[in-house]
Amino acid sequence: MTNAKTDTNLTSTGAPAGSTFPNHLVKADYVRLSDFRHGLRRFLRVSERICHEQGLTSLQYQLLLHVRGFPERDWASISELAERLQAQHHGVVALIDRCEKLSLVVRRTGCEDKRVVEIHLLPAGENLLERIALQHQDDLHQLLRMFAWVEAQTPVA
After folding, report:
1. Quick one: pLDDT at residue 6?
2. Can you give the chain as a three-state secondary structure string?
3. Region 103-112: what's the mean pLDDT?
4. How many other CB atoms are there within 10 angstroms of residue 82's CB atom?
5. Three-state SS annotation for 70-82
6. pTM value?
7. Bridge partners (DSSP) listed for residue 121
8. Out of 122-126, 127-131, 152-156, least confident range
9. Which end of the chain is more exposed for a tag (fewer CB within 10 A), N or C?
10. For residues 102 and 55, what is the distance between their CA atoms, to the nearest angstrom?
């Protein structure tokens, strides 16, 4: 790839500062992008099937996953979950409502900041999350291997 562009601000594509981008793409770039999107879509399709078989939507599973997987603590705020899910605040509130009705999560007032609503997993949510996450492991490792292969095919700028 030639004519790489480095910018100290966000680029027109919204990429982080300091990233290197080509001014044009070649066939191999499109093949890598296609392979990446194909692998990602296959993983998501399998994930949707696994969730459905366990009685959850993919978004409900992702909510449970992000609560459990939030760094440094065992809960997450609604705004943190909205960021992780890339969703609007009100949509996440509705998703939490549905998960609460299934006895998967509970809202608690923040211990340190009473304005914060903490979302915690209940035992049923923890058990269901673990069952579903375990079923994702083979497909996750396959996807990660594919991403590593695609990355290895990317020429250094």
Report:
1. 41
2. CCCCEECCCCCCCCCCCCCEECCCCCHHHHHHHHHHHHHHHHHHHHHHHHHHHCCCCHHHHHHHHHHHCCCCCCEEEHHHHHHHHCCCHHHHHHHHHHHHHCCCEEEEECCCCCCCEEEEECHHHHHHHHHHHHHHHHHHHHHHHHHHHHHHCCCCC
3. 94
4. 19
5. CCCCCEEEHHHHH
6. 0.79
7. 105
8. 152-156
9. C
10. 10
Query: pLDDT tens for residues 73-87?
Result: 999 999 999 999 999
Q: Which of 87, 80, 55 is nearest to 66 (CA)?
A: 80
Buried b (16+ CB within 10 A) or exposed e, 107-131: eeeeeeeeeebbbbbbeebbebbee
CA pair distance 108, 116, nearest whole angstrom? 9
